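Office hours follow-up: a student asked to see two folded examples consecutively, so here they are.
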Amino acid sequence: MNKRKLRILFPTEFTGINTGFSTYSKELLQELYSANNYELAELACVTDPHAQIAMSDGSLRYISNIKVGDIVISHKGENKKVINTYKTLYDGQVIKISRHIFKHTSLEVTENHPILAIKKKNAYQNKGHSPNCLNRTNPKIEWIQAKDLSIGDFVAYASPLSNKNNINEIYNQDFYSKLDDDLAFLLGWYLAEGCIAKNKVYGYINFDICSSLKEQEHILEIQRILLEKFNIETNIQERPEESVYEIRKCERGFSKFIYTLCGLDSRDKYISNIFWNASKDFILKMLSAYFEGDGCSEEDQNRLYAKTSSSRLALDVTRLLLKHNIMCGCKRIRAGGYELSLHGEHAREVAQYFKYKNSSFKDVSRSEYIKLDNLIFYHVEQISKKNYQGDVYNFTVEDDQSYICDNFVVHNCYR
């Protein structure tokens, strides 16, 4: 049996205090690391108890709810077990970091928390600073303390490794379904235009679709799928005053099935983590139906975008696409809600599954990201600092010693 290493808590001094101890703390830490006889825990933690940790099943969990034995995704995209959890009181400076992508989320950590990143000086080659000059083959990747990051540096998001065994069916007590093209189309359009009436418990399910000539094809397709796949007969009603077609059906079992997978209404929509292990083909067909229903193609701008009022749906769409190496931007909009956007070849990869729209997008060479294996690096747009007093959180992960927090790759307590 392997002997466990001695654990040492190493609280380094706040850099604003000039006693001289901080001058030597880094050298002392390096000596302890190189001895390889100790596990060192520094006070490097996350301030927000609701910071979201990426779990192995595709779900997100608040860092304050992480427990020993939970399985999280590491920076290598692998599933790793949580060994210990920590909550401690902190009084000092914290740093908040925002990136080019995931603009609706940011990370706030203690100043010495290591984040996987590439310094700006190491991200470019040939002395240029345009996207075409990015070093996309062998830039220097390193764990960098939050206090040492600058605007323009690149921080990582880790895409989980694809599961070998994709799920091909889903069920609950009322319904069973194969993950086929029809279900992908139906769920995508539900995410875009569907809802379940709140005045009934899992009651009426509605699809409200614009009554243009093109959209008639969509609503007829939805009607066909409901009948052939789920044996649900429906009628199409036109509401001329609102310029919409409506499919409305009270089928409690089916409504519960859809609610479980995709939520209730516009602000509550999400994509169940059940689909985390679905095939890339199914995911892209489902999301192409969503973008076809709720999105807009701007070929002159070489982009495809959609808007949603659900923060959870915005995050789910972005994470699912990133899992399959498709870059999707997300930002808050002034009118409320979130805008999801795809550019160039990434838009084309989703739009190729459109049933009724013809869209063409050109490759983008200006994208400011670096893709290396399962890691995607986006540049830092904003950094702010403040003094903080309160609880902070962290935990230890086996082997890889890292996890994904609010879509940043961070090191855990022990290094």
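And the second, which I mentioned at the end of office hours:
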Amino acid sequence: MKINPTSILILALILLQSCDLEQVDPVTNNPGGGGSKCDPTSDTITFQTTFGGGTLDSATAVALSPDTSIFITGFTKKQGEDLLVYQTNLCQDTLGYRSLGGGTNKYIGSAIVPSGDGGYVVAGTKFSFIGDASYVTKLNSQGISSSVWTQTAEKGIHINDVVRMANGDYLVGGGIIIEGSFGDQSDAYLVVLGSNLAVKKAIQFPGNSFGDEVFDVLELDNGEVVGVGSAWIGFGNRIKFVRANPSSGNILEDKTLTYKGIGGDNNVNGDAALKTSDGNIAVAGHYQLIFGSDPTTTFLMKINPTGSVFWENEYGDVSQNIVGDHEPAAVIETSDGGFLIAGNHKLDGVSDIFLLKTDANGDYEWDKSYGGSGKDVANDVVEMPDGGFLVVGYTESFNTAGETGKVYLLKTDAQGIVK
């Protein structure tokens, strides 16, 4: 079912006057204590560290600034459940901390990207009693909000990703909730915002499944935009693939993909995607041959801009460290032309983090597992200038009494080793 976005959306460009902005003391809240004894440009830094605690705190996305400062977004329950924005470096110094939100609403930051002018843009979802809404907020280098885009639909909108386009605009993607034949369903949804976060184009993809949502968005070399995510087709899922012209809003592709022809009621999910250096697309996902019972297996596939497959590989049969159910959370192209998947695997009910490295053809190179005795979750990963990798997520393994979860930062070397 397709809904005319202009008939049900309230589009507004507002100042974030209703949000609480908190500055936390960078000394007393330094989780690592690196300070003057640490050189953040060193190529030998590896660590596992946490911050937050007392209540559930989680990192969902990470981005690097040109000076290699690390910007993290997620959520914190320190004061209700608010958007978290945290700035640190490889010395684990707290360079900035903000919580935005307040009141009875629940704010979650899903993605963060540098804005090109020293600030950064955060996208996410606000959950409230009257319905869910999406938001994108632009923050300056001091973490103060300069402009905000909010969008509300009758049933709700979820935003999962944001990228800065070549012309300075922003592309966000997620799902819009609609009334379907079986109750609430969702359509894949892309929105193009100007540099000031004013709406330029909203594109809804009606699809033909019960529930579609975009998890990652990207801009192709020809300026077209793509969203990759998941489509619920009944008892199983497929990879959702959409493509559009961002200027006209014309839909060019609205379809589902699968892995190695797996069909029927089997579960095939697209969890993460990126544009490769040669202008194509890599998709990381997981499949389950018998929905709800068989273990999940991680795969990586490379497709062209229209969704045709170049190659597809899976990794459950080659890994020495990834056991039980495993599925990706993020994928990046590495400086050597290969790929790195960050994800989570579970055995006997306990979740740990994994990194899996491949070459440019998706062939397995190495994998590592991380975590403690409790639940540990990876949500995003970036490659650092030294060739190592920084993973963000949350952990329950290192809680003290009364804590429910902390932000988890994991910095490895180029081989995934924490020294």
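Two things to take away from it. The chain has a mean pLDDT of 83. The first strand starts at residue 10 and ends at 14.
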